[in-house]
Design a protein that fits this description.
The protein is mainly alpha-helical and 224 residues long. It has a domain of 102 residues. Helices cover 71% and strands 2% of the residues. It is built from eleven helices and two strands; from the N terminus they run H-H-H-H-H-E-E-H-H-H-H-H-H. It has a two-stranded antiparallel ribbon. Strand 1 and strand 2 form a beta hairpin. Helix 3 packs antiparallel against helix 4, helix 6 runs antiparallel to helix 7 and helix 6 runs parallel beside helix 8. It is globular and about 60 Å long.
């Protein structure tokens, strides 16, 4: 069903003739493709969107931002498929775009800038963790300012990705601290199955943590 909706989004985006909308549709379509093992299709779709956005001699700031977000999505997609050189190269290219956009005004057409240093750091945490580089993922986390991310969902995602890296490092207390931040940022995100599963792992490893029982009851996590 997700793939069908993504196809519809792509058709509508192409009909609009707006390359920024097309890039957003490509990112939306890449997620179900990635999650169903169709990595090559997802990367091709994102690459085509980026090429379309940067084809002209002087891409607009909005076009560069959309291209950068497509590249970040592609970098994470490549990392999930354990394609380390591609993931690192795409992340580095996006960092260059992010630095370039930092010299422009922080708003575009009345909306906050989406591609920022904090957004880039958020993706970097997930990318390095997917590649098994937990030390770099955890070194990146303190540089991220969640309050500067554009939505509550992104702030919750920052805490979730940091929690996963901390779990890999064996810091169970730190994981629970991040799970509380997920709930604080966006209570419904704390009820997602993947986040409840994290809480369940914490409960198995450290059932004695203060506040864990009430957190599990509020979020529907696995019973202690």
């Amino acid at each position: 069903m997700a793939g069908a909706y993504a196809q519809q989004a792509g058709v509508a985006a192409r009909r609009s003739g707006d390359p920024v909308v097309l890039a957003a549709a490509a990112r939306a379509a890449a997620t179900p493709l990635r999650r169903t093992g169709r990595t090559d299709e997802a990367l091709q779709l994102l690459g085509e969107a980026r090429t379309h956005l940067t084809a002209g001699p002087r891409p607009t700031a909005a076009g560069l931002e959309a291209a950068g977000m497509a590249e970040l999505t592609a970098a994470y997609t490549a990392a999930q498929a354990h394609r380390a050189p591609m993931a690192r190269e795409l992340a580095a290219q996006t960092e260059e775009i992010t630095h370039h956009l930092a010299s422009h005004p922080h708003t575009q057409a009345g909306r906050p800038r989406e591609l920022t240093a904090d957004q880039h750091a958020l993706y970097r945490i997930g990318i390095h963790r997917q590649l098994g580089d937990i030390d770099t993922a955890l070194a990146t986390a303190p540089r991220l300012r969640p309050a500067q991310l554009p939505t509550a969902e992104r702030r919750a995602r920052a805490a979730t990705d940091t929690a996963r890296a901390l779990l890999d490092a064996g810091d169970i207390t730190g994981v629970f601290t991040q799970l509380r931040l997920v709930e604080l940022a966006a209570p419904l995100e704390a009820r997602r199955p993947s986040v409840r599963a994290l809480a369940g792992q914490v409960a198995e490893l450290r059932p004695d943590l203060p506040g864990l029982s009430s957190y599990a009851q509020r979020t529907g996590a696995s019973p202690l």
